[in-house]
Structures
1.
Amino acid sequence: MDEIQRLRAAVQPLLAWYAQNKRTLPWRGTHDPYRIWVSEIMLQQTRVEAVKEYYRKFLERFPTAEALASASTEEVLKAWEGLGYYSRARNLHAAAKTIAENGFPKDYNGVRALSGVGDYTAGAICSIAYNLPCPAVDGNVLRVLTRLLASGESIDAPETKSKFAERLREVYPEEAGDFCQALMELGAIVCVPNGAPLCGECPWQTLCLAHLNGNEESFPVRAEKRARRIENKQVLVLCHGEEFALVKREEKGLLAGMWQFPFIEDEPEHYGEVIAERKAKHIFTHVEWHMTGYLVRAREKAPQFVWASAEKIAESYAVPSAFKAFLPWLARKLK
Ligand code: SF4
């Protein structure tokens, strides 16, 4: 059996398994491209469990692309607060403006052209919303497929995704949306990434080469990981009366346009009396922040900062979760 024959043989058992075993998730059972798009963007790099509640609240607040388009950037970032990878929210907002004007695009190229939508997301939206045979291949799907085919192609090589997308295109069934979701579901609940896959529950037990060879965990093959860059930061949680100092991050790059406690290069004592100190770490994809935070009672309300009360910060300033270790300090009012 060659690779395409094996993939073709895997389609129907997978669809039958999916019909029986799919989880009930808030974004399942709709063909509304707006809702599917929001779910796919939220699910990028984020666990299903973490997304559920955000998804519900986000759609309550912005039920249509038009509602999202007419919101301010601050409102959108605030609704996204805590979900991480904030450029997703900015792209979603930008794309909503295009959609509000022209309607939701109806084909792969149109969807792919939306801000923040890559090959995978465009494939998922087109398959699920429009039942088009557009493969959606991410790390999850690659893991499942490289095991099925016992393929030694490194999943970190840039061409591997498109090679697998091509193979899938040849076997895509009429039930495109279900097939796309079934592949994702198998990767999420049976052919899992950490620990041994649950081959005993898999519809591909008799087809999967990795399983037949007993070396499931040799796949997927990965390139050596590059170490993350470590950046040491001093975080100034500066309090004056009931207000705290914030600065806005630049409009480009990591956590673009969000609000944070200022980073400082000099001694915290230059700003006032140091009341408390705490260490915290936050891990991004390519960088780790090793932070030392200082709670400082300010001598004066320095004009280079924006000042806001704890209540106002919670209500209107999107502060990324990288700073969450310092948020309990906001409950302390230093007179
Ligand atoms: S048989 Fe095991 S390794 Fe193969 S696809 Fe199924 S769960 Fe993954």
2.
Amino acid sequence: MAILIHNSLTKKKEELVPLDGKTVRMYSCGVTVYDKCHIGHARSLYIFDVVRRYLKYRGYDIRFVRNITDVDDKIINKAKELNKSFDDVVRENIKAYERDLKNLGIRKADREPRATKYIPKIIAFVEALIKKGFAYEVDGDVYYSVRKFKNYGRLSGQSIDQMIEAARIEQDPKKRDPLDFALWKKAKEGEKCWPSPWGKGRPGWHIECSCMSMNELKSETIDIHAGGRDLIFPHHENEIAQSEALTGKPFARHWIHHGLLTINGQKMSKSLGNFITLDEVFERYSSDILKLFFLQSHYASPVDFSWEKMEEVKKAYGRVSILMKKLDKINKATGGMGSDWSLKRKTEFESAMDDDFNTPKALSVIYDMVNDCNKFMNSDTEGKQFLLRRAMDFIREVSDIFGINFLKESEISVEEEKLLMERIKARENKDFKKSDELRDALKTKGIIVEDTKEGQVWRRA
Ligand SMILES: [Zn+2]
């Protein structure tokens, strides 16, 4: 069956037909490393990881690129605010980001390019746009001439004049038109900068994604471009304008955007004091519970986070987990005739996911299956063990797509998991005294920790 994806560009559900057979080239806008990740970032990272895993499960050869924005005004401002060097802010936050990904159990992308490693290619890109008449330089800054690009506004569905209104763009007397945006920014005294044909400066934010996606995926047209809804305008609109002006080809065939996350109905912001970091979530819940919470909403919908909802999700997790524990004990396939009992659920699961990655519907199939199994266990149907075994294999397969381990919670408490995470942190900070103390604390709880090349592993004593 075909996989349907809602395309933000055409505003329609469209069949995924990759440009190149079964190869899917996917790019997702990653984090800007000026601060720690909050749960909104976690949703973005996780949801597209599920898309990637599901497409792989469906037999696609997915090439997934997720960038790191390591040069930006926000980083410059943060460094000033904290009285730290630009490089320190970047280094610390990349380290924290990598730790968060690990704690979330989200795999690395196939390529994770950083903007600052792309400066020569970005400069060549900007030069080509100037040559083609789509960009102009004014005193060390280079701007994109928005009105030269006739499809501008197609993605966000606005007219140019509406966009000027909506964006309330700050007045910059150097621009020829208020809607023009910076491709290259002249450096102020003491700012991080690189030499260029226009003097010392740094790239604007939008150009890096155009440049890195086409280069890393080795194609002028990519299959899927992903990001948050808040990136549609101006970021993605500008990416299209830059890329298509350069190549004359469509930039991305599918644009996929996730909805935004609120906290108790309010936008998350530091000034409102409702900013929740991942560390705070992990103090109370495991990453599996957080993932299950995200799956309960469709990726394109907004999500409202609350601790009460997390408690509900924990119960749902528990129901599946208890069943899996029971099934785990029935570990001997006994032969017997199979039926299409678990296959039917599998088909239901796949059609939910094929239809624009409908995870809430897919989850309800799993929950129904758990109920089936519980009833089935108490019956004396012939070949019962064989069927339950198949059910377990199916839930395991699904767990792999969702990156959730339903057997984990039964093996480890939140408290124990917290100690394990603290130990990873301590080792990263080369605090070996603390890491040894934590090893002892875990040992008294019956958990043996070992350090391997792949990192910390643990087992029950
Ligand atoms: Zn981007």
3.
Amino acid sequence: MVQSIKGRWSFIALVFSFFLAFSKAAAAAPLDKELKDTLADHGFTGQVEASLEERLGRPVDPELADLGRLLWFDTIAGLNDDNSCGGCHSPLSAFGDSQSIAIGIDNNGVVGPNREGPRNQRRTPMAINTAFYPALMWNGRFAALSNDPFDNSSGFIFPQPEGTSLSYNSHLLQAQAHIPPTERVEAAGFSFVGNSNDMRDEVVNRLNAEPNYIDLFGNIFPEVADGDAITYDMFASAIAEFEFTLVFANAPIDQFARGHKKAMTNGQKRGALLFFGKANCVSCHSVSGDSNEMFSDFDNHVIGVPQIVPSDANVVFDGPGQNEDFGLEQVTGNSSDRYKFRTAPLRNVALQPAFMHNGAFTSLRAAIKHHLNVPASVAKYTTDHLPTDLQNPIGPMADVLARLDPEVSTPIALTKKELDDLVEFVRDGLTDSRAKANHLVDLIPDEVPSGRDTLTFESQVCQ
Ligand code: HEC
Ligand code: HEC
């Protein structure tokens, strides 16, 4: 008797759970269909990562990339002897900054929350996926004129003194790698006497004086093995090759677009529909055409980010109070471009500890909410959550708000649940798990070919 009651109950439970599963699937089906159709309408395929080598026209060279990795972490290319690409582009924050505003030369040798030293002007963006960016930097000032970073046929444009002189490089990242060692506040320091070409010459002089580098370059470039000097172009191609290995564009949204419906949670799916719909994010964070599915139109807009002012900076900020960042105007000289910044590409965005060009926000939710009602976000903004040397009165905001891009000038009301979904989508739906710190930590070398001390990497908590 007891047996049969138990049996009956379990039969009922079974039927009930079938019913639940069925109704869940029935609820998911329209959501899946709506998202699938939305992605198709926006031309999103989830296949951009697979296009890398085809667009390069060759396979990525693992040996050259590994040499680039060693250079990334070696202070030999920093003429001030205390910084490398990795000091700012940290693998523990998706190859972006560990800070709200970059600290370059005269740092304390730490990469992470306890990094100290004079500030530069902006936050270091992630180097991950930059292989697909047609315009680099927060104001897009290094750009492929073809709008395709793999295509140099129309030239690559940089501010003076480089201009279009780097257009012989086959990819925009090879051209870009000519710049950081020439930036005095980032790596070169103020004591070296000479122009950008002199600095690049000095970097290769250093490499050519180091037998380990002669061997490593010699393994790849036969002319070096035959006794020719290492050139700056070789250095740049190694750095760019390493960056080509930092393509992590297989997030849940990509898997979903390729037909794996379970790759996303229902919350992520609802958030995605808001992103492409009512929340209007896609009007700037676009995924079609030249955007290479990077969630940016690679154009510049004013979205009214609070202007953060460091106590100790080695860059003179803009404006009469030297407490502003004019963004695109710095490049064009046109005052109508004031406060415009490049739409931030959003893949893996949650793996950073701070957001926006100056890290004004340290919570992803606050960074997203800012867009939904910019004046309200600015009115209640404080710097309390920032490191103490950034807890200063913010720069003037009235003129910034007067110039807001029309796409963010009308507040959008979302319910708490909708905002939760939107944040879940941006945080998890756009994150490729290979970009997380626990995967990338292994890229930090224990020692570098020059034998110099390496920087100390601290783990970082992101939210
Ligand atoms: C002092 C810190 C610092 C160092 C060192 C540094 N960078 Fe950067 N990097 C930045 C900052 C800050 C930006 C954005 C600057 C801006 O927009 O004005 C940037 C931008 C970039 C970008 C463009 C990213 C994007 O989203 O468009 C690439 C690529 C890059 N750096 C590569 C490198 C390489 C390669 C090295 C070493 C050779 C290097 N960086 C060294 C701070 C640094
Ligand atoms: C008017 C164009 C525009 C719209 C619409 C827009 N954004 Fe942005 N977004 C930007 C620009 C420009 C930046 C970089 C601003 C800066 O740093 O000064 C940015 C930055 C961000 C960042 C910070 C990224 C980082 O790496 O720091 C996030 C997150 C973000 N947007 C999400 C969204 C979401 C979600 C929506 C929809 C609610 C949205 N954006 C709508 C232009 C836009």
